[in-house]
Amino acid sequence: MRSTVRQSLITSTAFALATTLPFSVAHAVADPTPDSQHVPLPDQFTTLRTGSRGIEVHNAKKRLRDLGFPPGNLSPTYDSALRMTVWAFQKANGLKPVDRIDPPTWQALLHPRRIRPLVAYGERERTEIDLRRQLLVAWRGGKPVLVTHISTGARRAYCEKGHCGFASTPIGDYRVGVRVPGWSTGILGAMFYPVYFNGGIAIHGSTLVPRYPASHGCVRVPLHNALDLYRFLQPGTPVYVRRSEAPAERRPKARAERLSRIPKARPPEAPHRSYRDSSRPGRPTGDRGRGRR
After folding, report:
1. pLDDT range class, residue 174, cuts 50, 70, 90
2. What dihedral angle (degrees, nearest 10) is formed by the CA atoms of 135, 78, 223, 173?
3. DSSP secondary-structure letter at 22?
4. Mind telling me which residue stretches traverse the membrane in this protein (predicted)?
5. Distance between CA 261 and CA 257 in Å, rounded?
6. How far apart are CA 151 and CA 208, in angstroms?
7. Which is it for strands 157-160 and 143-149: parallel, antiparallel or unpaired?
């Protein structure tokens, strides 16, 4: 069975690389290719989890690396670096991040979605940070070259080690400033190859990069991606921080819920009131709440 898996994955990998790379440019939000929605999934693909070993793990790591999701080493072991790399890939492909390579993830590996920039007018060499999906995408020559899972500001007040503040990673356009090689110890903890882009806020490697925003404001990345990002993020490189929109299919429902809370118009108080009187300025209308998110 494993030989069948290897043959299927290698053949599909060659086909997918020829048809999906390089990625198209155009919100680091993934967009499906026209033929990726109805791809038959081979029954022999097995689910891989932390601790799994074998050629399937090795091939999955190579595939992720070729797609711009560095998994660290290419050993045949499903380690913590691969776990966080799989989270990044799943989020970029519209999947829920889970601790395994399951059938939907195998299908996405064979037919990945295209990466789209968060900022259409961004410079060709830049880094984009998506606060909603907790993803970082490094772009070079208008193409994504490194995609990684991140953990940004927890959006809560904190007081630690005599230092108080609000944990937030502000949206905006910034540029890389000071870079510090190796480990650096700050007021709130240790950072691996920190790259500062907004005052005291930096992109840096960390031993703790959970699936949710948990930092004091910095952008935590897995340790195995920190050095590559440090080399890529030269002084002056643009860093764009945005919050991408939720998937389109969720917006109509949210809008319907908002509209359902709008009070209905009252009938005229007396028969003799004119239409102009009953719609005087200041009355609630059906447009109330439009555009709010």
Report:
1. very high
2. -10
3. S
4. none
5. 7
6. 9
7. unpaired
| Range 144-180 burial, b when 16+ CB lie within 10 A, else e | bbbbbbbbbbbeeeeeeeeeeeebbbeeeebebbebb
Residues across the chain = 293
More confident residue, 87 or 253: 87
| Arithmetic mean of pLDDT over the chain | 79
Q: Which residue has the higher pLDDT, 10 or 66?
A: 66
What backbone torsions phi and psi does residue 267 show, to the nearest 5 degrees? -70, 160
DSSP string, 180-226: --SEEEETTEEEEEEEEEETTEEEEEES---SS--BSSSEEEEHHHH
Share of the chain above pLDDT 90, in %: 62
Residues marked active site are found at 204, 218
Position 229: which residue type?
L
Domains of the chain with CATH codes: 2-116 (1.10.101.10), 122-242 (2.40.440.10)
Neighbour count for residue 110 (Cβ, 10 Å): 22
The per-residue pLDDT for 34 is 41
Q: What is the pLDDT, as a whole number, of residue 188?
A: 85
Q: Please check whether residue 241 is in contact with residue 129, taking contact to mean a CB–CB distance below 8 angstroms.
A: yes
**What is the C-alpha to C-alpha distance for residues 276 and 263, in angstroms, rounded to an integer?**
20
Residue 132 host element (H or E)? none
Opening angle at CA 257, ends 256 and 258, nearest 5: 90
Q: Residue 88's closest CA among 17, 127, 136?
A: 136
Mean pLDDT of 176-205: 95
